[in-house]
Amino acid sequence: MTVIDTPPGAAVPIPGFDTAITMAEAAACDNPTWWNDVRNRTHDADVGYASSVLLAEFIRHHAHVHGVPVSDIWARIRATGELPI
Questions:
Q1: Is residue 13 helix, strand or coil?
Q2: ∠64-66-69 over CA atoms, to 5°?
């Protein structure tokens, strides 16, 4: 099934998502050994893109929850070098 064939509202898998989410979980657990193990066992070039998609969704969600334009959140991140938590 291609993106064109996917029914409206159906989730379209992001290439590299499984690896990216596992690496994010390892990082959240403050477990660099696990993170490196996942990174070293994958040759998935899509992981970087999937990680970027996940980060972008987090930032959009944060802006929505706080009722501010997402561009303000991007600007704050660039200015401070910190993610809003």
A1: coil
A2: 60
Query: What angle do helix axes 70-80 and 47-66 make, rounded to 10 degrees?
Result: 110
Two tokens, residue 16: 């590299």
Cβ proximity of 50 and 20 under 8 Å: yes
CB neighbour class for 3 (10 Å; exposed up to 12, middle 13-18, buried from 19): exposed
The pLDDT tens digits for 5-38 are 666 666 767 888 888 889 999 998 999 999 999 9
Query: Residues with Cβ < 8 Å from 72, sequence gap 6 or more?
Result: 63
Q: What is the DSSP string of 20-34?
A: HHHHHHHHHTT-HHH
- Residue ranges of domains in the chain: 17-80
With a threshold of 0.85, does the pTM exceed it?
no
